[in-house]
Amino acid sequence: MTATMIDGKAFAAGLRARVAEGAARIFAEAGRRPGLAVVLVGDDPASSVYVRSKGKATVAAGMESFEHRLPASTGEAELLALVAQLNADPAVDGILVQLPLPKHIDERAVITSIDPEKDVDGFHPVNAGRLATGLEGFVPCTPYGCLMLIKDQLGDLAGRDAVVIGRSNIVGKPMAQLLIRESCTVTVAHSRTHDLPDVVRRADIVVAAVGRPAMVKPDWVKPGATLIDVGINRTDAGLVGDIDPACAEVAGAMTPVPGGVGPMTIACLLRNTLVSASRRLGVAYAI
Ligand SMILES: Nc1nc2c(c(=O)[nH]1)N[C@@H](CN(C=O)c1ccc(C(=O)N[C@@H](CCC(=O)O)C(=O)O)cc1)CN2
User: Fold this and answer.
1) Which of 77, 139, 220, 285 could connect to 144 by a Cys-Cys bridge, CB 3.0–4.6 Å?
2) Which range of residues forms the domain containing residue 56?
3) Does 51 lie in the same domain as 111?
4) Is residue 282 part of a domain?
5) pLDDT digits (tens, 9 = 90+) for 250-260
6) Alpha carbon of 28 to ligand 1 centroid (Å)
7) Pocket test residue of 39, 44, 83, 98 for ligand 1, highest count of atoms within 8 A of CB
8) Do residues 200 and 248 share a domain?
9) Alpha-carbon distances of 47 from 59, 141, 161, rounded to whole Å
10) In a domain, 122, yes or no
């Protein structure tokens, strides 16, 4: 079997186009554009590229972009003051603080300082709790993008066996919650899991988010399974995911790296910002 390669880039472009239609409708009905504030502290090259891409995509979708680039020496109090200012700004519908933050800043303190109603990253404990308890809230962009790709591939997911490799607050845990919400039978595997290959072999859906280059091997994969690769590992051989590309010989469908999950992250961020603006302005949207 040779797997269908899931084109996340094309899917994300379609989603961004639908978000742009929603943003135009909000502008027509409410007289202002949805606004997204992105905060970068420091000069990590990859983060800087992601922040620039977010700003460009925001403007291209007909939204207002507010970019705040602060030096690496910025103190936690100064960052919290900026977040408080953005929380109070009526033109700002969404706030995102780019991660990782410099080591001297407590990431948790910053995330919890964001107004949950503007937390378009979905990282605030209030939004994590809403997801876990079936309430409406913001869902983290990367796992939400993964779910969209999986549903586009498989349709109804009820009863499928899913394995999520990785238990981070940003990807693994929300991904598991989303799959539970779709009535999958979900296993969350991590560094202490016994016989990981055997656990993965039982799965119809595998989401790998561990940051270990090409860790998932072809003989771990159930024939026909759908493989979603969240890994972005920079190696001497270039950008490599967590799933060995040779798994394409066994899988039914899989995402490439790059061009799979990555582009969905920014598209879902725009989608969350549109949702926030439509809630705050009382304008209905459909995407
Ligand atoms: N506050 C946040 N910080 C971080 C998030 C996040 O969702 N919120 N996610 C990642 C970085 N990220 C967005 O911020 C991001 C990662 C990857 C991509 C992407 O399109 N990747 C491309 C490859 C691009 C490359 O060469 O690096 C792909 O996979 O095709 C977009 C956004 C951590 N921080």
Assistant:
1) 139
2) 31-115
3) yes
4) no
5) 999 999 999 99
6) 31
7) 98
8) yes
9) 19, 16, 34
10) no
* CATH code for the domain in which residue 82 is found: 3.40.50.10860
Evaluate if residue 91 carries a pLDDT over 70: yes
* H helical segments located in 160-203: 172-181, 196-201
Helices (H) and strands (E) in the chain, counts: 9, 11
38 pocket-lining for ligand 1 (C-beta < 6 Å): no
- Locate all alpha helices (DSSP H) within the chain, ordered by sequence: 8-30, 45-60, 76-88, 107-113, 125-133, 141-154, 172-181, 196-201, 262-281
| Tens of pLDDT, residues 223-272 | 999 999 999 999 999 999 999 999 999 999 999 999 999 999 999 999 99
Measured CA to CA, the distance from residue 158 to residue 184 in angstroms comes to 5
For the question of an ipTM over 0.90, the answer is: yes
> Is it the case that residue 274 has pLDDT exceeding 90?
yes
Q: List the one residue out of 138, 134, 181, 137 whose CA is nearest residue 162.
A: 181
Contact 57, 270 (CB under 8 A): yes
Q: Are residues 43 and 100 in the same domain?
A: yes
Q: Is 266 in the pocket of ligand 1 (CB under 6 A)?
A: yes
Q: Which two tokens stand for residue 103?
A: 């080591």
User: Which of 111, 120, 265, 271 best tests ligand 1's pocket when mutated (most atoms within 8 Å of CB)?
Assistant: 265
